[in-house]
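Before going further, learn to read the protein records used in this course. The integers have meaning only within a learned vocabulary of local backbone shapes. To see the layout at work, look at the sequence and tokens printed below.
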Amino acid sequence: MSGDPDSHAGARQLVRRCLGLEPGQQLVILADETTVEAAMAIAEAAESLHVPHTAILVPVSVQRRIPLQSDLSLLAQGAVREARAILVCVNGAPDCLAFREWFLETHWTARTRIGHMPGANLEVLKLAEVDCEKLVSDCHDLEVALARGRTLELVTQAPGGRPHRLEADIGGWQRLPVASDGIITDGAWGNVPSGETFIAPLEGTATGSVVVDGSIPGLVVGPGQEIVLHFQRGRLARIEPEESPVARRLAETQIRHAKSVGDLDWANLAEVGVGLNPAVERLTGNMLLDEKAVGTAHVALGSNFFLGGTVQASIHCDLVIRGPGLLVDGKTVVERGRLAYSEADWHEHYKHVSPATSPWFAAGQVARSGIQATTSADGRLQRLLRSQPGRVSACFVGEQKTALLARDLYELLPVGGEWVAIDRLASRAGMSAGVARRVLHVMADYDLVMAR
């Protein structure tokens, strides 16, 4: 391996911690001529950890033909079928996006872990050498806010201090976010290394403007080079200044390609995300790095299909912003680029529910809604969050005491959705009717129960 100890440590962390591979479990690494150095570093790390591995070179020219005119060789297909984990360590060019999406669609199974590393290099490997526990916690805190929220507001600043606001509908449980913490488990896929939480806003809802002052693919935005993106009904309407160097590069490297293939969806606001990885110390123009940088947010144009959305475009173009603010349902969750998550805002205590305003004090019966829930190791009720297969996590239903009481009530409700008298349910759970109604109010905020 190269003499860079940080890259070496990051590669080992990626194999052992991010992919969770044990000695003897098979790893397949797909690489091309632009990423071979990082791929070989990962292969050497796997060797040192006694993880058997196969490196497969898929040239850029072949990626551009797949899936229309070509396929992986039979030998490569065999290796992929036997793999416990696969790293798609290829370039991030927009004309190769179809290959990356095709590979995920055709090789993703319930037992396989797939890590995506578009544009990987030795610098990218350093992202894995981070305090994983804190990173996972930060990613999932923001995930809870985005999952529960109905509206999102991204606040950015123009050089003169003028604020720009981009607002979008995020659905309130309809369109679930992804906490991309870089930990890939069986049946899951995601970017590795990682450190971001993102969501695909509901299509057609984004309105307003955002200042891009961080980076775009292949270019760091310097002082005085900022651009402003204006959105209407979920689509990019215009860029100003239109003839700036940053706007021209965006057009030449992303938009022109999309238009050349007749793509009408390239202008879709595909994503809003927040970087949370402190290992990214500077922006480089490599989106795999830049979008993870703590102190930044990013928006993306184009495809959102693999983020839980409905748009399949020919590009997915991330654009990075420095020091933004982010509000969800009017509550600040990011301030000047830093996580400002308040536990009390998103995990309420049942005692704070008012009988005067809660509809549950007038309800007579309750039933399960059909949304899945589970119990944690310490006995608290969790609502499962799922944006798509392989992207599974959960959030506690209220604060600690509330989640324990919610578990007691939930387990007594029939699985089939039959209605139960609330007073009878409270009696069976050994709690007063007033406490039960307050807890049910909180459970309803997580869409777990219905009243009548």
